[in-house]
């Protein structure tokens, strides 16, 4: 009976998540904020079970698939192109925020130890990939801003968790800087190494899988394999998951079949939608437990409001100040950096988009029982999550006020068409080089005239009998492979934006799947 009751609550949880998200999208509200509000309201309904955040569950069960899904959709080319800025934000900004917020929190809460203050600084330092995605999805972000935010939120969790572990050790034991430095190196190097190893092994296995269902099934366990292996050697699990996802996403066109890529994309979009929205509902449901702990901490209302205000202002000011410092480095630094500089007006949107999420909420529960004012720090972390989420909702307005250009959709469409035309030219070159008699003449002419199937099928075309249909399909598969090689070559040469590359690869995948489905129908 307990299992049935638990299953019923889980089903209700998912139904509420989907219903609220759909309703919010329909009326133009923020789905994350609506889910937090609904979660808070539902948590006070009699009969609703108490929800306590289990940090191990969030960090080990929810976070890996979310990071993996985001990494699959992130352009490795963009990460490489903006690697300096991403490191400055995902490592430098996290360390800077940890120190600044830690010192300020220690100053406004005198009974708090410095180690505990730095631990709290590490908790609120990283932006959350889930929260950033949820906010940026509502705004037509400039591509540069979007790539910076995506890369930062993917790579900063490892830095923050390592900093938190170091501060926690200082709370419960004597701090050893040499040991701390060694653990940091192990976390980063080990995380990258495990991520590359898992990506290589999984890629080799998936290359040999012919059934799309087997490939996508293996994909679902991949983030957990990377996370568990990294965690087992003391390395950064989140970093390992991100590295695995980035490289598997980049290598997908040569590792997987078209059907597998299409199925994987749909599966992970579904997983990402459910989990990233469920996370915000979980945040709202956890408020009563957090609030009860805060009320028992002995902080008066006036003092609590002062601390909250100071911490929030410090958090925003630290991010804004660091962004301006990074801009100055790019503007007046080495020539290599000056070529990649961003405008001063980009700093305010970067600051506003610094949304915290479930990583912050889970990490604050990792603080040991010995931490002074632990319950109040948990409540303070919850306030930071909600406040930065509210601030992030102003991002569309900020972008308009700073006159940042929205994505040029017409230019992107034209670039996509140019890349597709380039790929088709390569396939037609292949057809022109064929020897007479290699394929049925009508099949060759059909491929020449229609280099992209684009939804057309061979069913019902009585001009192509079974033999000619097979001849056409075989030749079309060869030309699609040639087109894909041309697209990947253009990607390596950096001649097209990643959005155009992925759009054309998707077109080719859809066409290849259609050809294969037609052949399967003819065989039946």
Gyration radius, to the nearest Å? 26 Å
Number of helices: 23
How many individual β-strands?
0
What's the main sheet like? none
Q: How far is the first residue's CA from the last residue's CA?
A: 47 Å
String of helices and strands: HHHHHHHHHHHHHHHHHHHHHHH
Mean of pLDDT: 80
The portion of residues assigned to helices is over 70%
* Beta fraction: under 5%
- Unreliably modeled segments: 452-465
| Class of secondary structure makeup | mainly alpha
Shape: globular
Characterization of the model:
The structure is a single chain. The chain has 524 residues and is mostly helical. The protein contains 23 helices and no strands. It has helices at 2-27, 31-43, 55-72, 76-81, 83-108, 114-124, 129-136, 143-172, 177-207, 212-232, 237-255, 258-285, 287-295, 301-332, 335-338, 347-352, 358-364, 374-392, 395-401, 409-432, 441-449, 466-493, 498-523. Helix content is 78%, strand content 0%.
């Amino acid at each position: 009976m307990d299992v049935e009751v638990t299953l019923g609550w889980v089903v209700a949880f998912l139904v509420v998540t989907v219903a609220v998200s759909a309703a919010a999208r329909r009326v133009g509200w923020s789905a994350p904020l609506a889910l937090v509000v609904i979660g808070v309201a539902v948590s006070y309904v009699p009969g609703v079970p108490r929800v306590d955040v289990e940090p191990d569950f969030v960090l080990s069960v929810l976070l890996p698939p979310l990071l993996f899904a985001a990494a699959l959709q992130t352009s490795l080319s963009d990460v490489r192109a903006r690697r300096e800025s991403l490191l400055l934000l995902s490592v430098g900004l996290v360390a800077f925020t940890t120190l600044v917020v830690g010192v300020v929190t220690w100053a406004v809460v005198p009974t708090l130890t410095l180690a505990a203050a730095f631990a709290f600084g590490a908790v609120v330092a990283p932006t959350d990939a889930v929260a950033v995605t949820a906010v940026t999805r509502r705004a037509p972000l400039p591509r540069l801003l979007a790539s910076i935010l995506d890369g930062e939120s993917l790579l900063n969790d490892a830095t923050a968790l390592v900093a938190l572990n170091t501060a926690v050790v200082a709370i419960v034991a004597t701090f050893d800087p040499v040991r701390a430095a060694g653990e940091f190196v192990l976390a980063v190097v080990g995380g990258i190494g495990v991520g590359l190893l898992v990506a290589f092994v999984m890629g080799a296995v998936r290359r040999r899988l012919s059934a799309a269902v087997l490939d996508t099934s293996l994909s679902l366990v991949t983030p957990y394999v990377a996370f568990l292996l990294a965690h087992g050697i003391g390395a950064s699990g989140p970093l390992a998951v991100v590295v695995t996802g980035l490289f598997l996403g980049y290598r997908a066109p040569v590792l997987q079949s078209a059907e597998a890529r299409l199925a994987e994309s749909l599966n992970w979009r579904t997983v990402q939608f459910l989990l990233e929205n469920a996370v915000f509902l979980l945040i709202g449901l956890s408020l009563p437990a957090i609030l009860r702990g805060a009320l028992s901490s002995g902080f008066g209302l006036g003092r609590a409001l002062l601390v909250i205000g100071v911490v929030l202002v410090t958090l925003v000011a630290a991010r804004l100040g660091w962004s301006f410092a990074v801009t100055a480095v790019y503007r007046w630094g080495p020539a290599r950096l000056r070529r990649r500089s961003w405008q001063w007006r980009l700093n305010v949107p970067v600051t506003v988009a610094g949304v915290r999420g479930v990583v912050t909420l889970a990490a604050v529960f990792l603080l040991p029982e010995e931490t002074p004012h632990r319950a109040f720090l948990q409540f303070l972390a919850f306030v930071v999550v909600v406040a930065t989420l509210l601030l992030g909702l102003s991002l569309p307005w900020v972008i308009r006020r700073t006159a940042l250009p929205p994505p040029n959709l017409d230019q992107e469409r034209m670039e996509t068409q140019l890349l597709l035309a380039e790929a088709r030219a390569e396939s037609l070159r292949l057809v022109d080089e064929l020897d007479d008699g290699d394929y049925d003449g009508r099949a060759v002419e059909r491929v020449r005239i229609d280099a992209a199937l684009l939804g057309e099928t061979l069913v019902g075309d009585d001009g192509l009998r079974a033999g000619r249909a097979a001849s056409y399909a075989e030749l079309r598969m060869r030309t699609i492979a040639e087109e894909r090689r041309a697209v990947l070559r253009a990607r390596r040469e950096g001649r097209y934006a990643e959005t155009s590359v992925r759009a054309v690869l998707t077109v080719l995948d859809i066409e290849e799947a259609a050809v294969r489905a037609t052949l399967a129908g003819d065989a039946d």
